[in-house]
Amino acid sequence: MRVEFDRDTCIGMFQCVEEWDAFEADRDDGKADLAGSEEHDDDVFVRDVPEDAELDAKFAARACPVDAIVVYEDDEQLIP
């Protein structure tokens, strides 16, 4: 499973931070950061999700009010 986070789309509600500790609040920028991720496109950050964090990653994606977080399983989009 992997997660993609579009930081440009993020509006800084930080609901993802409450759901998964891989997300961190960057209050200076008013955006979240995805720890352990790599930037793949402009402001799109990608990382693998450990098995023990899969549910948390899904909750983080569902909690995002602007769908800035997308969860994939074997290249199939699960959420949103």
UniProtKB/TrEMBL annotation:
* Domain of life according to the entry: Archaea
Which Pfam families does this UniProt record tie to the protein? Fer4_15
Q: Which InterPro entries match?
A: Fe-S_cluster_ET (IPR051269)
Q: What GO molecular functions are on record for this protein?
A: iron-sulfur cluster binding; metal ion binding
The family database entries (SUPFAM superfamilies) matched by this protein are listed as: 4Fe-4S ferredoxins
Could you list this entry's UniProt keywords, alphabetically sorted.
Answer: Electron transport, Iron, Iron-sulfur, Metal-binding, Transport
Q: Which PANTHER family match?
A: FERREDOXIN
Protein name per the record: Ferredoxin
